[in-house]
Design goal:
Two copies of one chain form a homodimer.
Chain A lengths: L2 E6 L29 H9 L8 E6 L3 H7 L8 E4 L5 H15 L4 E6 L3 E2 L2 H15 L3 E8 L10 E7 L6 E7 L4 H10 L2 E11 H11 L1 H11 L7 H8 L8 H9 L5 E2 L2 E10 L3 E2 L4 H6 L9 E3 L4 E4 L5 E3 L5 E5 L4 E6 L2 E6 L6 H9 L2
Parallel strand pairs in A: 1-2, 1-4, 2-3, 6-11, 13-15, 14-16, 15-17
Antiparallel strand pairs in A: 4-9, 5-12, 6-9, 7-8, 7-9, 8-11, 10-11, 17-18
Helix pairs in contact in A: 3-6, 3-7, 3-9, 6-7, 7-8
């Protein structure tokens, strides 16, 4: 089958400082302490359904060696290097134009590199059902996570009518991260799902959508096209890619396409959502990592650290690089993180300020 | 002048874990972050009044190289190595017997290696006045620190009558670490001083006192005597020293001699105290180190660490090895200490349990 996996692995993970930092962001780290990095877990999760030659990773040049080390089966040609961060629309455009050149009939499953899934069997069932749903059409499918709480850290997908004979729904609208009251309302109404940033669509649909909504960006990829798979590719990309608008695929395509009757590549298009329930987290915060990690009797989550002793401490999340020893006494509700000779101790409920905290020290 | 400085530097400093540990105890550490170790500060404090050839250090064989590195001017022959810890009486006996062999008229000022003094000029004045007071007599002089608070962590010296024409007092009794109520009473009565463990006496008095009160110990040093300053010294000491009673000089001599009319070396003896007020701490606890360290506006004491950022944190003491960065947010009243890839975070008021804390991790 002509199905391809695209992994977006260019983020810098600043919210997990000091564990995650620009030179070693969280997708390349064994965040969960399970012996595999988040990138490796992502590939494992899609797993046997994708041939290594059909797995593509878009990342930054700084991380090329990390990707090669962590995914030795993925051909080097399939690792695309963005010269700068331009959000997800240019990222997806670049990889789509490149795949199209070799595999014009490809169906793409596009996924972030750093998310977490509990039930990988159900996950794979959803991905394959999604691929079957879009294949040969101009449909765009997103996976919508059944919300388990009124989370204000996620975007929501508002679904409309079901698609007869399938588990998919038409998407009515994308909703940005809501305030708590709104999130609560979304959960009550039942037709809202978390936007997990996983998109399934044919490469021809990606191309047509970007051509329609971001014609300047499409023109840049057209100019790069001849260089793909040649010795000139990186130089050409380095020159033209930075001219792309910095815009997410959600803004560039999804929101513009949802709830309308638009044709793409000569076929009726539309955005669809597959309400899914396989246990998911974007692992975007220490809090979400804490939620996904086994706790001890005092509700402490200790990750990747054998030499941590917690005494009269509760509700903490502790993550060390492994070659350090730690005794923590009398801490309640703290994040304690260590990496590369840098230590953070802060209240769990202050984690949205971690970037600010990190700047107080790295400037010195 | 025939005056000698004896520094007892054999302690293991377990109360300052993880900064201080058996392989690198606190006397060999720049505990105060001033660029010199406590041992070096001790020698500096006695300073110019003692010729390097008259400075003696008693320590353990494990620490020989540390002493040589930190005190390069002290002759290797003057560094005495105890094969095991036998408390202060055998320590002082060994060094006294050895000094006596070369300098039978020596007056000894004996001091721990790890204390802290604020006013070093006044300190030196006291030491020299003390040496003048005992020289050529059988007097034993202790320095008594004027108590500034009812501290229950120190022993107290109860003084009796003054010695006419001097600032010295007869010692009536030594009192062990009191409970709070008793300490309060001592402070009110005015004739109690903290026992700082600094003793000034002639070497002949030391010998006579040990011979009188610990004859078996004296006999062991008599057996070692011939070996001193020879190639056999260490082997002989290693064989005989462990047979010494494990007893402090306070128990062995001071308490037995105080308040009585006893002759030593053919002269009237007695224990005297010099009430002193030069700002002193035994730096025996993180709390005492905290008390001696400059604080920031939030009453945090940060020692030896340029890369520590304290945010919304108060009343903490932070001590790192220097090559580590730390962000601490939302901590109130904690000890945060890092050394050799080991980190301790604990409530300041739980520091008496640090040994227990350290054992939870080092056993792993």
């Amino acid at each position: 089958m002509n199905k391809h996996l695209v992994i977006m692995a260019g983020g810098v993970g600043s919210r997990f400082w000091p564990m995650s930092r620009p030179e070693n962001p969280k997708q390349f780290i064994d965040v969960l302490g399970v012996g595999k990095t988040l990138l490796q877990l992502t590939v494992d999760r899609f797993g046997k359904d994708f041939d290594p030659s059909h797995i593509w990773v878009v990342t930054s040049a700084d991380y090329l060696n990390k990707v090669k080390e962590q995914l030795p089966d993925v051909p080097t040609d399939n690792i695309l290097l963005e010269p700068c961060m331009r959000n997800t629309a240019p990222c997806i455009g670049y990889v789509a134009w490149k795949i199209k050149k070799k595999y014009p009939d490809a169906t793409l499953a596009i996924s972030p590199a750093d998310h977490f899934v509990v039930d990988t069997n159900e996950f794979r069932r959803c991905i394959n059902a999604g691929i079957d749903f879009v294949k040969g059409t101009s449909r765009v499918l997103t996976l919508g996570m059944k919300p388990t709480r009124p989370d204000t850290g996620y975007g929501y997908i508002q679904s409309g009518n079901p698609v007869n004979g399938t588990e998919m729904m038409h998407v009515q609208a994308f909703r940005e991260k809501p305030d708590y009251k709104t999130a609560l309302q979304y959960c009550r109404e039942g037709n809202y799902n978390w936007n997990a940033g996983i998109f399934i669509w044919d490469v021809a649909t990606v191309e047509a959508a970007i051509r329609m909504f971001e014609p300047e960006m499409a023109s840049l990829f057209d100019q790069m096209y001849d260089s793909f798979y040649s010795a000139d590719e990186q130089a050409t990309v380095n020159k033209l890619f930075p001219q792309c608008n910095k815009i997410s695929i959600d803004y560039a395509v999804m929101e513009r396409l949802a709830g309308k009757n638009i044709e793409l590549a000569g076929q009726p298009s539309g955005v669809f959502v597959m309400p899914s329930d396989f246990g998911w987290s974007d692992l975007g915060t220490w809090g979400s990592l804490y939620a996904q990690t086994p706790k001890d009797d005092n509700n402490n989550a200790v990750i990747g650290a054998e030499n941590v002793s917690l005494i009269e401490s509760t509700d903490c999340i502790v993550r060390t690089s492994g070659d350090i020893k730690m005794v923590l006494q009398g801490l309640d509700g703290y994040i304690v993180a260590e990496d590369n000779k840098t230590i953070l101790v802060c209240k769990k409920n202050q984690e949205q300020r971690i970037k600010e905290f990190s700047e107080t020290i790295t400037k010195q």
